[in-house]
Design goal:
Layout (H helix, E strand, L loop, with lengths): L5 E10 L2 E11 L3 E6 L5 H7 L8 E6 L2 E2 L4 H7 E4 L12 H10 L5 H14 L15 H15 L3 E5 L7 H13 L3 E5 L11 E6 L2 E6 L1 H13 L1
Parallel strand pairs: 3-8, 3-9, 6-7, 7-8
Antiparallel strand pairs: 1-2, 1-4, 4-5, 9-10
Helix pairs in contact: 3-4, 3-5, 4-5
Bound molecules: adenosine-5'-triphosphate.
The site of adenosine-5'-triphosphate has 10 residues, from α1.
Length: 229
């Protein structure tokens, strides 16, 4: 799969008189990218910029030839987002309907929609949840269903905002395995440093800037050192 380059050029995000992200310039071409840093550093804001959920106050965010300010709708199809709180993402009362929901917008034939739902449930080892009422799921089960809904859409890039917070060890490993298999690009915001071990690149965000950008082990060492200071 040819992955479009993601570029942030002179990007700042301001809320009121507060600079949450400050003049960020980065180009993302890797397939597995982690984003770590302290609470409130700006990680979620950065991740939300990448599919146009947040627009820059200054500068531009480019996905291939498209910019989030001008091509929000096209970019939403290319860049999926798995929210930290799955309750924000699950829409339909029954799990399999929820996973099928987004597929309707892709104009796929019904048989293919059903097949994709089943395949995705199977890949994530959650086929047993297919007929469950969404509101009766545990937090971790909801997180897996939210993940399935985005995976079923097969976007080129998937952004995960703290995807493992509610997962037990087994589901965390299933998630990690799923990420390692993806042909898509995954950008993962997390406090769970272990899941980034095999990633190609990790950004450390400190106070609205990219304080470190490199290999996972070096980025984690930088973050640990910063946290102890
Ligand atoms: N819509 C908003 N309006 C005002 N301030 C905001 C808004 N969204 C985020 N912020 C502020 O911007 C800062 C960065 O928030 P962000 O959610 O990006 O941090 P984070 O690094 O993801 O933190 P955490 O690890 O706690 O999730 C925080 O101080 C937050 O309060």
């Amino acid at each position: 799969m040819e992955l479009p380059s993601i570029g942030l050029e002179n990007v700042s995000v301001r809320y009121g008189d507060r600079d949450v992200l400050k003049d960020i310039n980065i180009s993302l071409n890797e397939q597995r990218i982690g984003v770590i840093g302290a609470n409130g550093a700006g990680k979620s804001t950065l991740s939300r910029l990448l599919n146009g959920l947040v627009l820059p106050t200054e500068g531009s965010v480019r996905i291939g030839d498209l910019t989030t300010s001008q091509h929000a709708k096209q970019i939403r199809r290319q860049v999926g987002f798995v929210f930290q709180n799955p309750a924000n993402q699950i829409i339909m009362p029954i799990v399999s309907d929820d996973i099928a929901f987004g597929l309707k917008n892709l104009s796929l034939p019904k048989a293919e929609r059903i097949q994709r739902v089943n395949e995705t449930l199977h890949e994530l080892n959650i086929s047993h949840l297919a007929d469950r009422e969404s509101h009766t799921l545990s937090g971790g089960e909801q997180q897996m269903v939210a993940l399935a809904s985005v995976l079923a859409m097969r976007p080129e890039t998937i952004i995960f905002d703290e995807p493992t917070t509610m997962l037990d060890l087994r589901n965390r490993l299933a998630f990690q395995h799923e990420i390692s298999k993806l042909s898509q690009r995954a950008i993962v915001v997390t406090h769970d440093l272990e899941i980034l071990e095999d990633f190609e690149r990790v950004l450390v965000i400190t106070d609205g800037t990219v304080a470190f950008d490199g290999q996972p082990a070096d980025a984690i060492a930088h973050y640990r050192q910063w946290s102890h200071a």
